[in-house]
Amino acid sequence: MIIFNLDSDPSLFDELAQALLAKKGELEQRRFPDGESYLRVHSDCSHQDVIIFCNLYQPDLKILRLLFLTTVLKEMGATQVGLITPYLPYMRQDKQFNHGECVSSRPFAKLLSASLDFLITMDPHLHRYDSLDEIYTLKSCVVSAAPLIAHWIQQHIPNPLLIGPDMESEQWVSEVARLADAPFQILEKIRHGDTLVEISPPELAPYKNKTPVLIDDIISSGNTMLETINHLTLANMKRPVCIGVHGIFAEGAFSQLQQFANVITTQCIPHSSNNIDIAPALAKATLLLINKNIANT
């Protein structure tokens, strides 16, 4: 098995290569004077299972090189080519709200499905889709961060109260609460715009001795969590912990959250807040999917 790192976190790549017992592929990249990409594979990939580790956070900067790499790997005779991307982009745009809008999750899924044999990712934003199979035609495996988050909470937070800021977060929060054996609450969010949100106040009276733990799949602007933290502060609760699967932290969100809470994320998007390891879980899912593909051929 060979694994390539395409423009992604080198430390997580090293962990994945070790967990998969995979040889690191040699890849040469540069840009021509006009800005176009040059790419060359130096490893022999004939009759090999090949994995590309490419974190597709900020996908527009990486997607062309990913397509170039998948093309040349198949030309070189790779048995199958798969992608590990901890963050799967273009999942939040899943409905046309106005005439002429592109529901970009669908053409993006077609693009990857046509180029790859399999895909491993962690907790994509499945809101209006029940599964990736609704839009992706390749073999895929979604790795859940819930067991990893629950384990971290059990190790670091005594007497936690888990809080989900909206109904979309219930699927993660309820599972983490079950695994961590902790109580939880799901709040109601009313969105008034891209960044303006209103959160219903939680019922906190029975939980004064507990540490609030806010959990969501994506922390972007941070406004949802900041609004929730405001309710916690007014109720004189302990300093909360904010946990995100994907820490995007747009527009200075991390520095704002840090003022009022301890902020923890998984390794899905490289950041100083990364404290929850994901490599073993991603590697296990990758091996299972590869072996399943081989068994079906």
Please give a structural write-up:
The chain has 297 residues and is an alpha/beta fold. It has two domains: 2-144 and 278-295, 3-Layer(aba) Sandwich (Rossmann fold), CATH 3.40.50.2020; 146-276, Rossmann fold. Helices cover 31% and strands 25% of the residues. The chain has helices spanning 10-20, 63-75, 105-115, 146-156, 170-180, 223-234, 253-258, 279-295, and strands at residues 2-5, 23-24, 27-31, 37-41, 49-53, 80-85, 118-122, 139-143, 160-164, 184-186, 189-191, 197-199, 211-219, 241-247, 262-266, 274-276. Helix 2 links the parallel strand 5 (49-53) and strand 6. Helix 1 crosses helix 8.
Quick structural gist:
With 297 residues, the protein is of the alpha/beta class.
- Enumerate how many helices there are, as a single number: 8
Coarse shape: elongated
CATH topology of the largest domain: Rossmann fold
Residues in β-strands, percent: 25-35%
* Backbone structural class: alpha/beta
Q: Going across the biggest sheet, name each strand in turn.
A: 2-1-5-6-7-8
CATH classification class of the largest domain: Alpha Beta
Q: How many domain modules?
A: 2
The CATH architecture assignment of the largest domain turns out to be 3-Layer(aba) Sandwich
- How far apart are the termini? 17 Å
Residue stretches low in confidence (pLDDT < 50, at least 5 long) are none
Elements, N to C (H/E): EHEEEEHEHEEHEHEEEEHEHEEH
Instruction: Calculate the mean pLDDT score and round it.
Output: 91
Main sheet makeup: 6 strands, parallel
Backbone CA Rg: 20 Å
Q: What's the number of extended β-strand segments?
A: 16
- In helices, the fraction of residues equals 25-40%
